Structure formats: structure tokens, C-alpha cells
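Escalated from tier 1: adenosine-5'-triphosphate holo job.
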Amino acid sequence: MKTSTTNTAAPARKTMMVAGYTNERPHFPDLGNITEAREKRFLLDFCSEIAAARSRADLSRALRNGLKRIPSAGGFVVQQVQNDQTTTNFIYDESLETVDAALVRELATAKLPLRDGLQDRVLQSEIPLLFSVNTEIARGNDAPYLRIWKKAGINIVTGTALRTGDHQHGILWLGVADIDIPLLQGISAHVSIAMSNIIAHEELVRREREAAFLHAFSRDIAAIRTKADLQSAISHVLHNVLNIRLAVIRTIDEDGATLSPYLFDESMVGDQVEWFRSLIARKIDIHHPLSALVLQNDGPVVFNVSEEAAKGDEEPIVRFWESLGMEQAFGVPLRMGDTNIGTLWLLTNDVNMPVLNSICAQISIAISNMLANGKILAYKQQLENGSDYLREQIKTIYNFSGIVGSGAQMQKVYRLITQVAASSSTVLLTGETGTGKELIARAIHNASPRKNRLMVKVNCAALPPHLIESELFGHEKGAFTGAIDRRIGKFELAANSTLFLDEIGEMPLELQVKLLRVLQERELERVGGKATIKVDVRIIAATNRNLEAEVRAGRFRADLFYRLNVFPIHLPPLRERVEDIEPLANAFITKFSKHIGKRISGISAKVLKELKSYHWPGNVRELEHQVERAILLSEDATIREVHLPDRTRPENDDALPSAAFPQTLEQIEKSYIIEVLKRCGGKISGVGGAAEALEIPGTTLHSKMKKLGILKADYFNI
Ligand SMILES: Nc1ncnc2c1ncn2[C@@H]1O[C@H](COP(=O)(O)OP(=O)(O)OP(=O)(O)O)[C@@H](O)[C@H]1O
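Tier 2 regenerated the structure:
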């Protein structure tokens, strides 16, 4: 046996037998005590057992049994050549575990570089090579398997390339000092065939398993209705089929410009959860280099983490991958047909690309179905809410079928409506209560390009402050107690239409900030939601308060006021457009006589005079109610009587007639308080209440009202 400092190679021979066995033994010594005939017998037995091997365990057993009959044999290892210039263990002799179990097991799962000065030489050689373990170690070769052989006390090992045709499957290492080269070649030829069969069989089993998983996955995914179920199905298939974990799925937002997180799994980020969450929470521009690359690619993109880090772009996500010790990260486009719907990110150092592709195709379908479902639900809700509006509109249609009034003041209002309607500019309608602000808001909407969608109205004074935010911006399920379902807000409902914010002066200060943000950025977040939603909404706001005074008093934000006051339209009080009173009264007679079912043809001159001289604190609404009441009470076809409150004024006289004037101080006080209460819409205390206007505490006003016998009917009877 030659154990020179270098390896000894046996020259290739032309006289090999079919099994690779020949009687000639030019370099290797005899096969111990096995005679030539027994050698043949041995090889036949050995090879038939190897040929029968269907699994790694079979092959291992066959090699172990065969080698038992070679006295100098000390163990075997078969390494498999991988595509990435490495080898991995295929089988090893379990008896080596008695030497150093931990090291053997470590090697069993390790990837060894192919070019280590030994493996590469064996694979390049046509014939088996013989190495001295001690010499290789002394030379500085630190291949870990040399340490095993050394610990096992084996100094001479032979390495034989395992090939079928041109394909290199691996290397057969034998710890044997004394073996006949043709016999070794015969053994290796059979091991090569067995190995390639086992690999093919394993591949087949793996594919069948994958196909079964994919089939189950597509079945499961078709039945999925919730995001949580989708997440668990995806995690399950990735873990079971690819043995990897999902990092995050991002979907492209409605605006088509950004990607938002859709699903993510923090189970693989260890104690870096907070960092991971902060990275995930961010919206990503679709042109961001890493995402753009994935979205432009047909299949998965492999990012080499150290190469990405070396670019010095200070990408936070790359630093994160580095911190997890990842060598590679995978970004996969999620697509339906030619349309990108998002990206899927995996943290793994290795992945089966074809399988990943088919999983991603299924995930794309599932996500796009879920997104479509979400949209359908939103549309459904929009339709439902829309039909409420429609009903409301139909119910009150007679109220805004036309604006009545042709006086100079209303002519000015009509001109302003015409100027602003076609644009999307914000309009601020001001004027006392009942002057027709809502009517004008609808007129602007109906004259605008948005007229085919319903105008959405929010009365900021009618909602409790804690509900206004959810009413305006919507909420996600569970956002607060009572949020049992997701609900879209009025802003989203008014998408591509007009949002009429009535009584804007009543909006609480804290909400004014949020409204300002939406008006500035045209995007909002639902209460309890993370996603930002773009909205194209035209705003018309209305108030009967003097907003400038409210700003000065610190009750209204100046910045919001300037945002709203883009195009102000002031509705004059009815007392300043007396010329409109008769046409308005006639219009209401037509409307109510039809509605009530009484044929009323007109108003007496006396009543008309009374109407024209009245102060109309409740403006057109008050006139409307007075006409309705008069029709109900009238006994013939002409209205001959109206019951106006005490504040009538004679024509051309600003002073009130003495008969109508209260006689005592108490009466003066009573009617003054009633007047103030009317102007404050019956609100007694709080912001905008009568007590505030009278500059007395709410409790004092209450007791005064009690003392003076002021009843609700006194100030609500307009
Ligand atoms: N010029 C008008 N022509 C016909 N009807 C009118 C006119 N102005 C107001 N009205 C009617 O008066 C009533 C009150 O009008 P509207 O609700 O638009 O007033 P407003 O200024 O918005 O009141 P508030 O400030 O109290 O909300 C409605 O029934 C409306 O149809």
C-alpha cells in the first residue's frame, strides 16, 4: 500500500469488466484474503445488494455489509455534489458516530465547499485517489471530514468519483488501506447507479408530496374568507413544503403608488419584533428600488444580503436582514394576469423556485379575491347608505326642487353658485339659521360634474363628539367598544362626490385638526385602521356662526377656517330680502296645499303685509312653517290669518308698536330670553348656548326660565 505524502492514483485500464471489475491489480495490493474467484463472488453479492437499494438506508446497509468483508475497511462516507459548488452528506457509516457523534452529525447536515483540495481532485480524476489523512492535515487542509477519519484512527482513505455518464453525483470515501482498484471501481459504479436512482426516487416522492400539498393548498385557499385564515394557510404551506417562513406580504394601495402591509409573520424575527413592526408599518413607494425590482420581475428575485448591504444605500430593511444573519432574502411579485397586486417577502437562504412560483400564483388569486370581496362589501355598504340618502332625498324632495327668490341679494347668490359649481373648490356657506344654506349646497352639487353621485351630508352638531370622527372617517372592526363591524365613513361614502359639512362651527377642536389634515392631504385613516385611504371629495361647509369671531374666541382653528373659506357665499336673512317673501309664501302654499290635500289659492293682503313686516328670526324655514300652519288652520281657499310671534314691525318703522311691546320689566326679560333661546336653536348652556350669549351661567338661566315661566313651546314654536 502506497501512503506517500501525496495521493497515489491508479491508471485507468482498458480491460475492465462490465461491473468495472478486472483481475489486473497494478497498483493496489491484494484484497486481503479474498481470492480471485471469491473476489468475483464478493463483488457479485455486494453489487446485487447495492443494486437492490431503494433508499439511502438500503444503500448504507449494503455498503456496511459489503465492507465488513474487507478486513482493512474502516468506514465510508458518500457526499452528494450540489449545484452551488458544494457537497452535502448523502450517507455515512453510522459506526463513525462512535468516534465523535456530534461532529459526525454536524457534518451530516453541513455544506462543504467542493474546492477543498480533495473533493475537487477526486471529481476531476478518472480513477480512485488515495490520500493520507495525516499528511493532508499536516499540509494545513482543514476539511472537517479529515478530523473524523483521524479520530477514527484511519490514515488512508480513498476517494472515488460517483458518476453515471457525464453526470457527477458525488464522492465515495472509504477508510480502507488495502483494496484492489478494479474492485473499488466496480463498487463505485454500482453505488453511482444506486445513488442516482435513489436521488431520482426521492425527487419523485418530493414532487408528489409537493403536488399533494399544492393541491391541498389550492383547495384550502379557495374556501378562505378571512385574512387570518389566509395567513395560517400561507404559513402552513410555506413551512411544510418549502420549510420557510413568510416575512411579509404587501399589497398595492388603491392609489397605485404605494404598497401597504397586508399580512406578516413575526414569528421568525426573534427579539427584533419591535424593529420588524416599525419597518413593516411603513408604506413603501412602488418605485422604491427593492420593490420596483420585484414588481418588474417575472419570478422571485433573490437578494444577496451582503451585496445589498455593501451598496451603502442604508436600506433599513437590508440592515434588518443582516441583523437576522440572513444570507439571502426573496422578493416575489404577486400578480393577477399582467396586473401587479403586491409583493411577498421571504427570509430564507434557500428556496425551491418552481414550487414558490406556484404557491405565489395561488396566493395572488386568494389575495385578489379577498381584496375584491372587501371592495364589494364596501360598495354594498355604500349602496345601502346611498339608498338611505336617496330615501331621505325623495322624502324631502319637494323642499329643494327649486330655489325661490329673485331679489338682488339672491341674484348675487345665483351668480356665485354659477361661478363655483363646475370646480372642486371648497365652498363655505354662511347665514342665519333657515336661510337656505343646505338648499344652496345641493344646488352647487347638482350643477357640478359630480351631480350623478349622491351628495353626502353630515350634521356636525347632531352627533355626539366622540362619534363624529368615526362618522366622518369610518372605523375598523373593534376600533372601539361597539365597533362590531367595519364601517366606511362619510368621507369615503362621498368619494367622487360632495360632502356637505353642516354646522361646521360646532365641530370639536380636536376633530378640527383631523379634518384639516384630510382637507390638506386628501387622505384619511379609518378609526383603528392603519391604511391610508385617498379620497376625492368636494367639501361644502355651512355654519350660522360667525366663524371669524369663533376663531378669535379660540373655538375654531384659524388654519381650518382659511381652508374652508376658499369660496364664501353668504345667505342674507329673510328680513333683508322682503321682496322674496311673497313668492316664497306662494311656493310654500302650492307645496303644502298639495301635500295636506287642501285647495288654497292665495294669501289675503292683510296677511301678506304682516308677513312682510315680521322680523323672521327663523328666516325661510320659519316662513315655511308659518305657511304650513296657516293652511292647516284656514277655513277657506285664502289664508286670512297667521299667528306670528310678538316681534312684528310696522312698515317703515324700526320701533316696535307699543301694543306689541312688553309692559313690565319681567315681560321684557322673558321675551328677550325667549328671543335669545330661539336664536340659539333652543340650546340653553354650553358653547353657542343662550346662557353663553347672555353671559350668565347655565344654572342661572335655568332658574330664570323657571321663574319667568318660559316653556319649550315658547322658543321652539318658530
Ligand atoms: N330660497 C329658498 N327657496 C325655497 N325654499 C327655501 C329657500 N331657502 C330656504 N328654503 C327652505 O327653508 C328650509 C330651511 O332651509 P335650509 O335647511 O337650507 O336652511 P339652512 O340655512 O341650512 O338652515 P340651518 O342653518 O338651520 O341648517 C328648507 O325647507 C328649505 O327648503
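The first helix runs from residue 36 to 51.
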